[in-house]
Amino acid sequence: MFTFEPIGIVRSCFREKFGIPRQPGLVPAAQATLELLPPYAQPAAVRGLQDFSHLWLLFVFHGLPKGRWQPTVRPPR
């Protein structure tokens, strides 16, 4: 078992979950930002990132009500 501690929050240009397209190629101009939380919100934490074109972020789906997990989902129509 792993214990995770959040280091930041991703803020997207999409304000509602149903506004997010299923195919990301449909909105190539969409952007998001990563807001680092203390104590990670300091210049040393991101030093050198400008030298790369991509950044991999690991995340956990936190919005699912406890006990409501299902192995499959039905996308909205």
Question: Could you provide a short overview of the structure?
Answer:
With 77 residues, the protein is an all-beta fold.
Tell me about this structure.
There is one protein chain. This protein is mostly beta strands. The chain has a domain at 1-17 and 30-50. Helix content is 0%, strand content 13%. It contains no helices and two strands. It has strands at 8-12, 32-36. Strands 1-2 form a two-stranded antiparallel ribbon. The radius of gyration is 16 Å and the shape is extended.
Helix-strand blueprint:
Layout: E1 8-12, E2 32-36
Antiparallel strand pairs: 1-2
Features:
77 residues; mainly beta; two-stranded antiparallel sheet; 2 strands; extended
Helix content: under 10%
Strand order of the largest sheet: 1-2
Rg of Cα set: 16 Å
| Count of helical regions | 0
**Number of beta-strand segments:** 2
Largest sheet: 2 strands, antiparallel
Separation, N- and C-terminal Cα atoms = 36 Å
Give the strand content. Answer: 5-15%
* Poorly predicted sequence stretches spanning 5 or more consecutive residues: none
Coarse morphology:
extended
Average pLDDT confidence is: 84
Structural class by sheet pairing and helices: mainly beta
The H/E string reads EE
